[in-house]
Amino acid sequence: MTKIRGNPNPRPSALPYTPKVRLPPPPPPPKPPRSKKGIYIASFLFIYATSTYTIYLYRTLLAPPDPSKPLPDQDTDLSSRYNETASTFDDNVSFLETTTGINRLRKKIVGQASGHVLEISCGTGRNCTYYDLGKVRSLVFVDQSAEMVEIAKRKWRLIHPNYPNATFLVQDAAKPLPRDVVPRGGFDTVVQTMGVCSCADPSGVLKRVGGYVKKKSDGEEGGKVLLVEHGRSGWKWVDWVLDRAAGRHAVVHGCWPNRDMGGVFGAAGLKVESVVKRGFGTVWGVVGTLGEGEEVKVGGADDGGVD
Ligand SMILES: C[S@@+](CC[C@H](N)C(=O)[O-])C[C@H]1O[C@@H](n2cnc3c(N)ncnc32)[C@H](O)[C@@H]1O
């Protein structure tokens, strides 16, 4: 009798058919656990910085008023402070404006400017990069601080060396503008960013510039007012902090951070078309119209105006 011996090591290929589906590759070996050292260090630094800053705020800006060092009355005009702080202004606000989204809001609002544009309370020209010069025909920048205007002028010329239609004026925006800077028919856009907090009479200034905005006429849109401003939030605890800090902040910076923006806009006769709010409602980006039906009042006697 013949013995049939089986193969002691049968190979997989010895299957009686060819499998149609390829088997998935084996899973990769598990990764070694990641070190959490970086996360712990970052968290520690964040908590340390936040608590140190909170204690600093509490001891300085938020401390109860010291009767031996009286603070100025709310809304006292301290706008001349900008003459002294002009050279450090950008460094002081840049980080905060970038991290809190204010610069993005500037871009969104100021980027809508078109035609002949008037920017009041222009400061150091922080909006220079946000204008779409494809849409803007001319720009007039106004600020009462010669030191701030000088920085704005230098910045503009550095960023837009070939743009010929930018004019810089040192003057109080509440006073009449020189005739030769006002376009015939008025400005298509008026811009103000962070001006309500610093002007002695913010609604008076807005009312005044409302007179320079192009009027609505048959088939033609009127001019627009674009604002990025900060003030009270409407949240009780935020407003408590703002009120407590306002006097000390104003003495150092010339800015009242607790003004009622809605009240200022209402008193100026601003008609709000759209508003976006940031920072617990303390920062507003506004598109609106001003001065409908009012005449353009300018300084000087002739009846010219630029085209
Ligand atoms: C907080 S800074 C804002 C500057 C700039 N617009 C910005 O967004 O960074 C306020 C500016 O308003 C200016 N200002 C205050 N009152 C003014 C007035 N009545 N006429 C023109 N400028 C004024 C100050 O000189 C200062 O440069």
TrEMBL record:
Pfam families (alphabetical): Methyltransf_23 (PF13489)
CDD domains linked: AdoMet_MTases (cd02440)
Biased composition (Pro residues): 22-32
Keyword Protein biosynthesis on entry: no
TM region(s), chain numbering: 39-58
Any one GO molecular function term: methyltransferase activity
SUPFAM superfamilies named among the record's database cross-references: S-adenosyl-L-methionine-dependent methyltransferases (SSF53335)
Origin: domain of life: Eukaryota
Keywords carried by this UniProt record: Membrane, Transmembrane, Transmembrane helix
Region of interest called Disordered, as start-end residue ranges on this chain: 1-34
Name of this chain's protein: S-adenosyl-L-methionine-dependent methyltransferase
Species: Cladonia borealis
